[in-house]
């Protein structure tokens, strides 16, 4: 198994290696080969142009990539790498789209749960959140692509929405309240998969891929 990672994910690399002892982990960055967290010479990087490759026949990799949406730059390295530029742009698009969706859904949550109908009030609610989302997207794209900070912002917005909908479910007598409670509780538990990450045991499913899988039935519900 040959994967490409960044130093940011070296801890998860070690966790993945310990959890999947049957695999021979070799990790490449743009500058060289990493084994056990130590930077070495990149003489093993055979392909031209210094572009890392992924050679993996395990069906678990296929399942992992499919569930993760073929995400280039996954924290545990199970991905099909093309080149460093692809890693960078894909991560930026991933982070930006996540915060955009969460920002929009938070606006909708506030407007719906508090039944905000006056147009001026809707603008007053939406404008600050749109400004926050825009500032955050600009920060991670043009100043610092900070995974930890992005996760904090995303989790804060996600938790805020869960509390808003839980409050609404508690005071409302809507006939579909039970569905909302299921979504709120299950979403909160699913969020733990993103916060308390774990590597793909057996080479099949990691926390991130399971989180993606849980979002399907929750979205339908």
From TrEMBL:
Biological processes annotated in GO: GPI anchor biosynthetic process
Lineage of producing organism: Eukaryota, Viridiplantae, Streptophyta, Embryophyta, Tracheophyta
Highest taxon, organism lineage: Eukaryota
Feature: compositional bias, Basic and acidic residues: 43-58
UniProt region (Disordered), positions on chain: 38-59
Function as written in the Swiss-Prot or TrEMBL entry: Involved in the lipid remodeling steps of GPI-anchor maturation.
Keyword vocabulary terms for this entry: Golgi apparatus, GPI-anchor biosynthesis, Membrane, Transmembrane, Transmembrane helix
Protein name as annotated: Post-GPI attachment to proteins factor 3
Cellular component, GO, one term: endoplasmic reticulum membrane
Family, as annotated: Belongs to the PGAP3 family.
Segments traversing the membrane: 93-111, 123-142, 148-166, 178-196
Annotated localization: Golgi apparatus membrane
Membrane disposition: Multi-pass membrane protein
GO MF annotation list: hydrolase activity, acting on ester bonds
Alphabetical list of PANTHER family matching this protein: PER1-RELATED, POST-GPI ATTACHMENT TO PROTEINS FACTOR 3
């Amino acid at each position: 198994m040959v994967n490409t990672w960044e130093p940011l994910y070296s801890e998860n690399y070690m966790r993945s290696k310990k959890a999947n002892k049957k695999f021979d982990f070799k990790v490449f960055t743009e500058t060289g080969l990493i084994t056990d967290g130590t930077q070495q010479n990149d003489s093993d990087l055979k392909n031209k142009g210094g572009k890392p490759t992924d050679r993996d026949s395990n069906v678990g990799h296929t399942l992992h990539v499919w569930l993760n949406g073929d995400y280039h730059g996954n924290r545990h390295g199970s991905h099909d790498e093309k080149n460093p530029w692809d890693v960078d742009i894909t991560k930026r698009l991933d982070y930006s789209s996540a915060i955009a969706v969460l920002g929009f859904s938070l606006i909708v949550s506030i407007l719906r749960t508090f039944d905000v109908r006056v147009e001026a009030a809707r603008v007053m609610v939406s404008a600050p959140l749109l400004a926050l989302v825009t500032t955050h997207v600009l920060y991670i794209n043009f100043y610092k692509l900070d995974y930890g900070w992005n996760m904090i912002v995303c989790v804060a917005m996600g938790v805020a929405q869960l509390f808003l909908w839980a409050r609404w479910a508690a005071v409302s007598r809507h006939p579909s309240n039970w569905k909302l409670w299921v979504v709120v509780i299950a979403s909160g538990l699913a969020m733990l998969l993103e916060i308390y990450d774990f590597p793909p045991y057996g080479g099949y499913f990691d926390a991130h891929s399971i989180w993606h899988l849980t979002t399907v039935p929750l979205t339908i519900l």
